[in-house]
Amino acid sequence: MPRTNLNDILIFMAVVDAGSFIAGGQAMGLSRSAAGKAVIRLEERLGARLLNRTTRTLNLTDEGRVFYERGLQILASVDAAEASVAGSGTPQGVLRLSVPDTFGRLAVLPLLEEYLRAWPDIQVEISFTDGFADVVEEGFDLAIRIGPTASDSRLASHVIATYRTRLCASPSYLAEHGEPRAIDDLVAHDCLIFTSRNQRHAWRFRGKGNSLITAQGRSRLRLDSAEAIRDAALAGLGIALLPDFLVADDLAAGRLRQVLPDLETDDTKIVTLYPDRRPLEPRVRRFIDLMVEELERRGEARRRDASSL
């Protein structure tokens, strides 16, 4: 079977990126008519419609979306192959990130000045969300997640840091509702639970023999943002279980108080997820390295502060 003209694939992707045949053709140095004919040739070759066309808009079909995502992977591999042959491995292009809202603003944004200054050919696009974006379908190079992540054969994952989690509540909440003295007491308290896609994230603690214990508590308020849970705890709406990077300042200032401090909580893992393809693009690899270095510095600073108390 004859091989598809690679230039037609590039034209198709340019049309998708630009959102029109005119702009996509111009990006490739072609007329609107030539760009349209290239896409038609590609569709005929594949035996599938890639674009739904109206007089005003272009939209990818399901087949077109799959083909476009595969095209992105091919172009990324070509870029990586060129870089490896050239021996440079210099980061370039657009780094697309999906990061948790609060963690992204606290830990990711401060890194960008150093990253962009070091690699002037890089552009960065970031989606701040505590929801779970589909990394492959939405075209992200890298996602950072906090806590458990669902298994996905399309993705590679790597734990880059761990944080202790703490049960905490405001002094006003504890004054009104009393302070729990044991894990079973949580059943009588309002627990501020993280939820996403209608899935609640249960609180688990370590018991004897390193066994896991699931806390049973009321869950009248459920939120999909760690920062919103922190704000709700500060407002006296319940007890929260949050990583210490988010509540350390509040605990130190007395705005929150730790609850059941002797209860051993599970560590919160910071995980990177990226499409499982080889080699990893330099722009992604360098950002991960920078993130690991920054989190290690923060960890050392926390340990120094703790040892000085």
UniProtKB/TrEMBL annotation:
Pfam families cross-referenced by the UniProt entry: HTH_1 (PF00126), LysR_substrate (PF03466)
HTH lysR-type domain boundaries: 4-61
GO MF term list: DNA-binding transcription factor activity; sequence-specific DNA binding
GO terms for biological process, alphabetical: DNA-templated transcription
InterPro entries per the UniProt record, alphabetical: LysR-type_TF_proteobact-type (IPR058163), LysR_HTH_N (IPR000847), LysR_subst-bd (IPR005119), WH-like_DNA-bd_sf (IPR036388), WH_DNA-bd_sf (IPR036390)
Keywords associated with the record: DNA-binding, Transcription, Transcription regulation
CDD domains cross-referenced by the UniProt entry: PBP2_CrgA_like
Family: Belongs to the LysR transcriptional regulatory family.
Role of this protein: Transcriptional regulator of the ttuABCDE tartrate utilization operon.
Name this polypeptide is given: HTH-type transcriptional regulator TtuA
Native species: Rhizobium esperanzae
